[in-house]
Amino acid sequence: MSTPPLSDQQSVDALAARLAAAPWIALDTEFLRERTYRAQLCLLQLAAPGEALCVDPLAAISLASLQPALGTGAAPKILHAARQDLEVLWPVIGAVAPLFDTQVAAALTGLPAQIGYSDLVHRLLGVELRKGQTRTDWSRRPLTEAQLTYAIDDVVHLAALREQLLEQLDKLGRIDWLAEELAGLARADRLFIDPDKAHERLRWNGELDPDRARLLQRLAAWRERRAVEKDRPRSWILEDAALRALVLQVPRSAAELAQIAELTPGFVERSGPVILREIAAAGMPSQLPPLAPRTRPDPEIAARVKRLAGIVQKRATELGLASEVLATRRDLECIVRGAIDTEVLAGWRHEAVGKELLAAG
Description:
Blueprint: H1 9-19, E1 25-32, E2 40-48, E3 51-55, H2 67-72, E4 77-79, H3 83-93, E5 99-101, H4 102-109, H5 117-125, H6 145-156, H7 158-172, H8 175-183, H9 188-191, H10 210-230, H11 234-237, H12 240-249, H13 254-258, H14 265-281, H15 299-319, H16 323-326, H17 329-336, H18 347-360
Parallel strand pairs: 1-4, 4-5
Antiparallel strand pairs: 1-2, 2-3
Helix pairs in contact: 4-7, 5-7, 10-12, 15-17, 15-18
């Protein structure tokens, strides 16, 4: 039977003292983010030699005493697919370091780039984990026995996975590769979106003329900041389709704003004035060029990307890696277009394939 989550300050502080002396700490979180911009931490699972337990962050406790062990302690913190956990923990722990991400390490041994935890445990340890709690509402209390068992399973095998993966990577001579991959995982600029760069996540941002591109950047930044301020999903502030309609149609008055079908009357009433101010502040000319029709991909660029993809696939096969671990299609498109700040042109990837890609570019 699983132990109930720690929910009193004395127990959490005692756990923190034990973790301070641990040689490694396995870590996972359960969270909820459907209704908020920031994910709500609902459960914290921890394991160290001789123990595995959960902490209930929704109880009237502080997690501050865990910060020295999790945030700055020398013991490696072992997670699987760590990005979302790191984002969720940032407000209460800050940066978690040093890190060991079993998904990242597994990819460097030749396993699928996005291998799941259960699959990895089964492949390396021969253990079949229970399923059935992936859609659970972790904010509801009390947690069931099945939920707690599932949650604990997520940390009890991490140390054994780390040991096996390190052994394999050492044999392959890729420990330095892993160190490079892990070094940037907890950087704030990789965990959080800069509002002024929020437009970059929209695939259609490259289809716009310079004036509309400038407006998109401004409106996307406004939406991102508003979502952070209200702690609501950005789509609750303004859906992508509505943002696109604003940028394409560029309304100049309340009447024109109200004519945009993708905007609800409530949004127009609440946020219409600020949207019009943002449009005015963007310095949009009175006459905008008509939207250029979508063009087919440049055949020359497409051919060069295809040629580079062949090089990546051949090299990945030689190294026993999934090709996307070496370079993504986006990386290849950047190289073809002259960008040199892609990951494939730095560090171990540069030596493994980047030099060859540049020579063939």
